[in-house]
Amino acid sequence: MKKILLFVFSILVVNVVFAQTITITTAPNAAYCAGDNIAIQFSYTGLSGGSNSFTLLLSDATGSFSTPTTLGSATHSTASGSNISISGVTSNALATGTVYKVRLKSGATTATSLAFTINALPNISGTTSVCVNSSTPLTGSGTAAAVNPWVSATTSKATVSNVGVVSGVASGSSLITYKDNHGCIDTTTVTVNALPTFSTHPSISTQNNCLNSTATNLTVTASAGSGAISK
After folding, report:
1. pLDDT for 111-148, tens place per residue?
2. CA distances from 207 to 17, 77, 202, 204, 212 (A)
3. For the whole model, what pTM was predicted?
4. Residues of the chain predicted below pLDDT 50
5. How far is C-alpha 191 from the geometric centre of its chain's CA atoms?
C-alpha cells in the first residue's frame, strides 16, 4: 500500500513540476489606433528544452478568437523564460471595438489579455488642389482633437486652419494631417497650383491720316495670351 501511495505521489509531483504555463507580465495599453504596434511581455515555465515557438494573436472586435489575426512570433530554446517581448502591427482597416484581446500561444498552452480598445482611423475628404492665394475646405471624420487637429507639413506651400481650411501660399504641395479626439490620424497631400499668367504680344498696323480727316480703325492682333483687350 505504501508503494502504491508513493507511486501516486511521484506522479503528482512530476505533473506539478512540468506543468506548462505562460503569463503575460506587461499587458497591452488601454487603447490603440488601427495600424498601431501592440507589444507585450511574458514569462513561461515548464516548456520543452528545445525550440519553443510563441505566436501573438489578435481577436476580432467582439473579442472572439474564432478567426484570429497573427501579429507576431518568437522562438526560445530554454524551458523557461521571463520578461520576453513580442509585438506586431495591426491592420489600418480595423473597425472600432472596445473588447479586442491578444492571446499568446505555444502549442496547446495559451494566455489571454484583458480587453482593450482599438479605434478606427479617421478619413479626410474634400478637394486636394488649390491655387495660390485661394483656399479649399477639408473635412475630417469623427470628432477633431481639441488641440491642433489640422497641421500642414510645409507651410511655405500651404497653411491649414484649425477647422481644415487649406490656403495656397506658393506653387508646390504639402502633406496635411488630421487628428481626431482619440489621437488617430489621417493624411492627404494638397497640391498648390501657380496662378495663371496673362501675356500679349500685340502688333498694330500703321495707318496714315490727314488732319481733320475721318479716322480709320486700327487693327490690333494679339497672340500668346487670352482675355479682353481694352481700347
Report:
1. 999 999 999 999 999 999 999 999 999 999 999 999 99
2. 115, 101, 16, 9, 15
3. 0.75
4. 1-17, 211, 222, 224-226, 230
5. 21
State what percent of residues in the chain have pLDDT above 90: 68
The Cα–Cα gap between 90 and 72 comes to 10
Coil, helix or strand at residue 43:
strand
Q: How far apart are CA 28 and CA 87, in angstroms?
A: 10
pLDDT score for 8: 41
The letter for the amino acid at 183 is G
Give me the amino acid identity at 91: S
Q: Report the amino acid identity of residue 127.
A: T
DSSP secondary structure string for all residues of 139-190: EESSPBPSS--EEES-TTTEEE-TT-EEEE-SSEEEEEEEEBTTS-EEEEEE
- For 71, 96, 118, 175, the CA distances from 93, given in Å and listed in that order, are 14, 10, 11, 21
Phi/psi of residue 6, nearest 5 degrees = -65, -40
Task: Tell me the CB-side half-sphere exposure of residue 124, using CA atoms within 13 A.
Answer: 24
The three grid cell numbers given for residue 118, joined into one nine-digit string: 482599438
Give strand pairing partners of 130. Answer: 192
